[in-house]
Specification:
A 6-stranded antiparallel beta sheet has the order 2-3-4-5-1-6. The protein is flat, with a radius of gyration of 26 Å. It is α+β, with helices and mostly antiparallel strands and 255 residues long. The protein starts with 8 loop residues before the first helix and ends in a 22-residue tail after the last strand. The chain has 2 domains: 33 residues, no CATH class; 192 residues. α4 runs antiparallel to α6 and α5 runs antiparallel to α6. The protein has 6 helices and 6 strands.
């Protein structure tokens, strides 16, 4: 007697769907679990995607986008995004845009030009930095933005934790609780302080996103031709721009 298992129509459908996904993955990746950068570039070239766009996307693949949510566990400390807007930036328009950027961010910052790109950078010691780059491209302007506040994230995580633990330690001083209490309660108080620090970081995170949206709007008003569409997100999910750090090319500050 044949004891081989039989499958229902629903099971057959699920099996075939999964098998097709496995086959498609094998066709694309072979037996590998992933691809090297060179392999990814080769596949993109065959699909008609230019090398520079793929490399830019690779650099930004693991960074939060403008529409991302705050990560309560790791405490998001950076946002980066790339947008394309119709109209090309020029020297005269750049001067006006710099004024808008300063008004929105509340800071001076340094301005310089690297190749065709107009760049504005603001660094705050022990807090972080902001960097905005505008590059004219075939009648459009690529707007790249990064805001990184890693230093603030560290301070806003460490100090509230220590403060909460210290305050609880002072409160417990002179009491006669079991030893475990003297360890557990300060630790829990520190966690509470850490939560307060996270609330502050979330507000700062949302503030950075709001600033960039306002800057995008200001740039669009300055350089978009009449009747042009709104600023659009670059198709290649360019999210995270042409680098985490500012270009090391030679710079000059303009007054």
């Amino acid at each position: 007697m044949d004891n081989k298992p039989t499958f229902s129509k629903e099971e057959i459908s699920k099996i075939l769907t999964k098998a097709s996904k496995i086959q498609a993955r094998k066709d694309l990746y072979g037996d590998q679990q992933g691809l090297t950068e060179d392999e990814l570039l080769h596949i993109a070239e065959e699909a008609g995607i230019d090398k520079d766009s793929v490399q830019e996307a690779i650099q930004s693949a693991h960074m939060p986008e403008l529409d991302s949510d705050f990560n309560w566990i790791t405490a998001s400390h950076k946002i980066q995004d790339v947008h394309i807007t119709p109209g090309e930036i020029d020297e005269d328009t750049w001067e006006e845009i710099v004024q808008n950027i300063r008004q929105v961010t509340g800071g001076i910052g340094k301005i310089h030009k690297v190749g065709k790109s107009f760049e504005w950078e603001q660094r705050i010691k022990e807090v972080g930095y902001k960097h905005i780059s505008l590059t004219p491209q075939d009648g459009n302007t690529k707007i790249q933005f990064v805001s990184n506040w890693r230093g603030m994230m560290i301070l806003s995580s460490l100090l509230p934790f220590l403060a909460g633990a210290a305050i609880m330690g002072i409160f417990l001083d002179g009491t006669n609780f079991p030893d475990i209490v003297y360890f557990l309660l300060p630790f829990l108080a520190g966690i509470g302080g850490l939560g307060m620090g996270r609330l502050y970081l979330k507000r700062y995170f949302e503030k950075q996103k709001s600033q960039f949206r306002r800057i995008l709007s200001a740039i669009g008003k300055r350089i978009q031709p009449p009747g042009s569409p709104d600023i659009i997100l670059e198709d290649s999910e360019s999210q995270n721009e042409s680098g985490n750090s500012v270009s090391t090319a030679s710079r000059r500050e303009r007054s």
